[in-house]
Amino acid sequence: MNWIAWNKVIAPIEYGGLGFGSLMDANLAMLAKWWWRFKVQEKGLWKRVIWAIHHNSRSWSAIPAKLSIPGQWKQIINIQQHLSRKGIDLHKHTRFPSLFGIVGWRLSAVQLGQQGQEAGELSGLMGILSSVSVSSNLDSVKWGLHQSAEFTVRSIKEILNAYSRLEPGYKFVWNSWVPKKVGFVTWRAKKERLPTRAALQARNIQVNSVMCALCGDYTETSDHLFVSCSKKKKKALNAIVQALNAIVHVTMWSIWMPLANE
Ligand SMILES: [Zn+2]
Q1: Is the pTM of this model over 0.85?
Q2: Which of 45, 66, 191, 252 has the greatest count of CB atoms below 10 A from its CB?
Protein backbone atom coordinates (compact mmCIF):
# COMPACT_ATOMS: atom_id res chain seq x y z
CA MET A 1 0.00 0.00 0.00
CA ASN A 2 1.27 3.48 -0.81
CA TRP A 3 1.04 5.57 2.33
CA ILE A 4 2.63 8.70 0.92
CA ALA A 5 2.71 9.93 -2.67
CA TRP A 6 6.13 9.25 -4.16
CA ASN A 7 6.45 12.84 -5.24
CA LYS A 8 6.13 13.93 -1.60
CA VAL A 9 8.60 11.33 -0.34
CA ILE A 10 11.36 12.42 -2.74
CA ALA A 11 10.82 16.13 -2.03
CA PRO A 12 13.69 18.04 -0.36
CA ILE A 13 13.62 18.05 3.44
CA GLU A 14 12.73 21.75 3.56
CA TYR A 15 9.70 20.92 1.43
CA GLY A 16 8.56 18.24 3.86
CA GLY A 17 10.04 15.21 2.08
CA LEU A 18 12.87 12.79 2.78
CA GLY A 19 15.17 14.60 0.38
CA PHE A 20 16.39 11.94 -2.00
CA GLY A 21 15.18 13.57 -5.19
CA SER A 22 13.95 12.03 -8.41
CA LEU A 23 16.02 9.82 -10.68
CA MET A 24 14.79 11.76 -13.69
CA ASP A 25 16.11 15.02 -12.26
CA ALA A 26 19.41 13.36 -11.40
CA ASN A 27 19.67 12.09 -14.97
CA LEU A 28 18.93 15.54 -16.42
CA ALA A 29 21.61 17.07 -14.23
CA MET A 30 24.16 14.46 -15.29
CA LEU A 31 23.37 15.00 -18.97
CA ALA A 32 23.74 18.75 -18.48
CA LYS A 33 27.30 18.04 -17.39
CA TRP A 34 28.11 16.84 -20.89
CA TRP A 35 26.59 19.97 -22.32
CA TRP A 36 28.73 22.02 -19.98
CA ARG A 37 31.90 20.03 -20.74
CA PHE A 38 31.48 20.70 -24.40
CA LYS A 39 31.54 24.41 -23.68
CA VAL A 40 34.49 24.49 -21.29
CA GLN A 41 36.83 21.74 -22.49
CA GLU A 42 39.32 23.17 -24.94
CA LYS A 43 40.53 19.91 -26.37
CA GLY A 44 39.36 16.34 -26.38
CA LEU A 45 38.82 13.82 -29.11
CA TRP A 46 35.15 13.36 -28.18
CA LYS A 47 34.55 17.08 -28.63
CA ARG A 48 36.19 17.06 -32.06
CA VAL A 49 34.11 14.05 -33.08
CA ILE A 50 30.88 15.75 -31.99
CA TRP A 51 31.94 18.91 -33.78
CA ALA A 52 32.76 17.01 -36.97
CA ILE A 53 29.39 15.28 -36.99
CA HIS A 54 27.12 18.06 -35.78
CA HIS A 55 28.68 21.36 -36.77
CA ASN A 56 26.76 23.38 -39.29
CA SER A 57 28.65 26.30 -40.78
CA ARG A 58 25.46 28.36 -41.00
CA SER A 59 24.55 27.89 -37.36
CA TRP A 60 25.79 30.22 -34.64
CA SER A 61 25.09 27.97 -31.66
CA ALA A 62 28.01 27.31 -29.34
CA ILE A 63 26.78 23.74 -29.00
CA PRO A 64 26.47 22.16 -32.45
CA ALA A 65 23.52 19.86 -33.07
CA LYS A 66 22.07 18.38 -36.21
CA LEU A 67 18.72 17.22 -34.97
CA SER A 68 18.26 15.00 -38.03
CA ILE A 69 20.98 12.74 -36.63
CA PRO A 70 19.57 10.46 -33.92
CA GLY A 71 21.62 9.35 -30.93
CA GLN A 72 22.85 10.31 -27.49
CA TRP A 73 24.00 13.77 -28.48
CA LYS A 74 20.54 14.68 -29.68
CA GLN A 75 19.13 13.58 -26.32
CA ILE A 76 21.72 15.64 -24.47
CA ILE A 77 20.88 18.70 -26.57
CA ASN A 78 17.17 18.17 -25.95
CA ILE A 79 17.55 18.45 -22.18
CA GLN A 80 17.57 22.21 -22.65
CA GLN A 81 13.83 22.07 -23.20
CA HIS A 82 13.21 19.99 -20.06
CA LEU A 83 15.42 22.30 -18.02
CA SER A 84 13.99 25.54 -19.37
CA ARG A 85 10.48 24.36 -18.46
CA LYS A 86 11.75 24.22 -14.88
CA GLY A 87 13.45 27.59 -14.94
CA ILE A 88 17.03 26.64 -15.86
CA ASP A 89 18.35 28.32 -18.97
CA LEU A 90 21.56 26.74 -20.23
CA HIS A 91 21.85 29.55 -22.80
CA LYS A 92 21.67 32.21 -20.14
CA HIS A 93 24.78 33.97 -21.43
CA THR A 94 22.90 35.10 -24.55
CA ARG A 95 21.86 38.45 -23.19
CA PHE A 96 21.76 39.86 -26.71
CA PRO A 97 20.23 36.92 -28.56
CA SER A 98 19.64 38.56 -31.95
CA LEU A 99 23.04 40.18 -31.96
CA PHE A 100 24.69 36.96 -30.86
CA GLY A 101 22.87 35.21 -33.68
CA ILE A 102 24.45 37.30 -36.41
CA VAL A 103 27.98 37.50 -35.00
CA GLY A 104 30.49 35.95 -37.35
CA TRP A 105 28.58 35.91 -40.55
CA ARG A 106 26.78 39.16 -41.02
CA LEU A 107 27.92 41.52 -38.29
CA SER A 108 28.72 44.03 -40.99
CA ALA A 109 25.00 44.26 -41.71
CA VAL A 110 24.44 46.03 -38.42
CA GLN A 111 24.84 49.75 -38.54
CA LEU A 112 24.28 52.17 -35.76
CA GLY A 113 21.31 54.36 -36.34
CA GLN A 114 19.55 51.63 -38.29
CA GLN A 115 16.17 50.56 -36.96
CA GLY A 116 15.60 47.03 -35.81
CA GLN A 117 16.19 44.52 -33.07
CA GLU A 118 19.91 44.08 -33.76
CA ALA A 119 20.65 47.79 -33.89
CA GLY A 120 18.82 48.35 -30.61
CA GLU A 121 20.74 45.56 -28.96
CA LEU A 122 24.01 46.82 -30.36
CA SER A 123 23.54 50.28 -28.90
CA GLY A 124 22.59 48.68 -25.56
CA LEU A 125 25.74 46.59 -25.75
CA MET A 126 27.93 49.60 -26.58
CA GLY A 127 26.43 51.48 -23.63
CA ILE A 128 27.42 48.66 -21.29
CA LEU A 129 30.86 48.23 -22.87
CA SER A 130 31.74 51.90 -22.48
CA SER A 131 32.05 51.45 -18.71
CA VAL A 132 33.87 48.13 -18.85
CA SER A 133 37.58 47.64 -18.47
CA VAL A 134 38.84 44.39 -19.90
CA SER A 135 41.33 42.19 -18.08
CA SER A 136 44.13 40.39 -19.87
CA ASN A 137 42.83 36.98 -18.78
CA LEU A 138 41.48 34.57 -21.36
CA ASP A 139 37.73 34.36 -21.77
CA SER A 140 36.03 31.57 -19.92
CA VAL A 141 32.52 30.32 -19.35
CA LYS A 142 31.11 30.72 -15.86
CA TRP A 143 28.37 28.67 -14.32
CA GLY A 144 25.69 31.00 -12.98
CA LEU A 145 23.91 28.63 -10.61
CA HIS A 146 26.75 28.25 -8.13
CA GLN A 147 28.77 30.86 -6.25
CA SER A 148 32.08 29.31 -7.28
CA ALA A 149 31.07 29.72 -10.97
CA GLU A 150 32.04 26.06 -11.37
CA PHE A 151 29.49 23.68 -12.79
CA THR A 152 27.92 21.33 -10.26
CA VAL A 153 25.36 18.62 -10.92
CA ARG A 154 24.02 19.34 -7.46
CA SER A 155 23.12 22.96 -8.30
CA ILE A 156 20.84 21.76 -11.10
CA LYS A 157 19.35 19.00 -8.98
CA GLU A 158 18.50 21.45 -6.22
CA ILE A 159 16.54 23.69 -8.57
CA LEU A 160 14.78 20.75 -10.23
CA ASN A 161 13.86 19.24 -6.87
CA ALA A 162 12.36 22.46 -5.62
CA TYR A 163 10.45 23.18 -8.83
CA SER A 164 6.71 23.75 -8.31
CA ARG A 165 6.85 22.60 -4.72
CA LEU A 166 5.40 24.58 -1.87
CA GLU A 167 7.11 24.77 1.48
CA PRO A 168 4.81 23.31 4.10
CA GLY A 169 3.33 25.64 6.73
CA TYR A 170 4.70 23.31 9.37
CA LYS A 171 8.32 22.34 8.84
CA PHE A 172 9.36 18.95 10.11
CA VAL A 173 12.62 19.20 12.05
CA TRP A 174 14.76 16.06 11.81
CA ASN A 175 16.54 15.38 15.08
CA SER A 176 20.05 14.06 14.49
CA TRP A 177 20.20 12.55 18.00
CA VAL A 178 17.66 9.86 17.24
CA PRO A 179 18.03 7.07 14.66
CA LYS A 180 16.48 7.77 11.26
CA LYS A 181 13.80 5.12 11.75
CA VAL A 182 12.60 6.86 14.93
CA GLY A 183 12.37 10.21 13.15
CA PHE A 184 10.63 8.48 10.27
CA VAL A 185 7.71 7.40 12.50
CA THR A 186 7.29 10.97 13.74
CA TRP A 187 7.48 12.26 10.17
CA ARG A 188 4.73 9.84 9.11
CA ALA A 189 2.63 10.68 12.17
CA LYS A 190 2.82 14.41 11.35
CA LYS A 191 1.49 13.64 7.90
CA GLU A 192 -1.18 11.33 9.39
CA ARG A 193 0.32 8.49 7.38
CA LEU A 194 0.74 5.80 10.03
CA PRO A 195 -1.47 2.70 9.80
CA THR A 196 -3.76 3.76 12.63
CA ARG A 197 -7.24 2.24 12.66
CA ALA A 198 -8.79 5.38 11.18
CA ALA A 199 -6.18 5.51 8.42
CA LEU A 200 -6.63 1.82 7.60
CA GLN A 201 -10.39 2.19 7.36
CA ALA A 202 -10.01 5.26 5.15
CA ARG A 203 -8.07 2.98 2.78
CA ASN A 204 -10.81 0.34 2.78
CA ILE A 205 -8.99 -2.11 5.03
CA GLN A 206 -11.30 -4.15 7.24
CA VAL A 207 -10.83 -3.17 10.90
CA ASN A 208 -12.94 -4.41 13.81
CA SER A 209 -13.22 -0.96 15.32
CA VAL A 210 -11.85 2.48 14.53
CA MET A 211 -11.81 3.40 18.20
CA CYS A 212 -8.51 3.99 20.01
CA ALA A 213 -6.78 0.75 21.09
CA LEU A 214 -5.62 2.42 24.32
CA CYS A 215 -8.65 4.32 25.62
CA GLY A 216 -11.47 3.12 23.39
CA ASP A 217 -13.19 6.50 23.64
CA TYR A 218 -12.07 8.28 20.48
CA THR A 219 -11.27 7.52 16.86
CA GLU A 220 -7.73 6.24 16.55
CA THR A 221 -5.78 8.81 14.52
CA SER A 222 -2.10 9.72 14.86
CA ASP A 223 -3.17 13.01 16.32
CA HIS A 224 -5.25 11.29 18.99
CA LEU A 225 -2.68 8.59 19.80
CA PHE A 226 0.28 10.91 20.24
CA VAL A 227 -1.38 14.10 21.46
CA SER A 228 -4.77 13.82 23.09
CA CYS A 229 -5.24 10.20 24.23
CA SER A 230 -5.53 10.14 28.02
CA LYS A 231 -4.30 6.54 28.31
CA LYS A 232 -1.09 7.15 26.45
CA LYS A 233 -0.04 9.73 28.99
CA LYS A 234 1.14 7.17 31.55
CA LYS A 235 3.10 5.34 28.85
CA ALA A 236 4.57 8.60 27.61
CA LEU A 237 5.54 9.63 31.13
CA ASN A 238 7.38 6.34 31.66
CA ALA A 239 9.22 6.83 28.36
CA ILE A 240 10.23 10.40 29.30
CA VAL A 241 11.51 9.29 32.72
CA GLN A 242 13.54 6.56 31.04
CA ALA A 243 14.94 9.00 28.47
CA LEU A 244 15.99 11.46 31.20
CA ASN A 245 17.57 8.59 33.06
CA ALA A 246 19.54 7.70 29.93
CA ILE A 247 20.76 11.29 29.62
CA VAL A 248 22.02 11.22 33.23
CA HIS A 249 23.83 7.93 32.58
CA VAL A 250 25.49 9.27 29.43
CA THR A 251 26.49 12.53 31.14
CA MET A 252 28.12 10.66 34.05
CA TRP A 253 29.86 8.37 31.58
CA SER A 254 31.21 11.23 29.49
CA ILE A 255 32.53 12.98 32.63
CA TRP A 256 34.09 9.83 34.00
CA MET A 257 35.70 8.35 30.87
CA PRO A 258 38.33 11.10 30.27
CA LEU A 259 39.34 10.87 33.97
CA ALA A 260 39.56 7.08 33.85
CA ASN A 261 41.78 7.22 30.79
CA GLU A 262 44.32 9.61 32.35
ZN1 LIG B 1 -7.06 6.99 23.06
Answers
A1: no
A2: 191
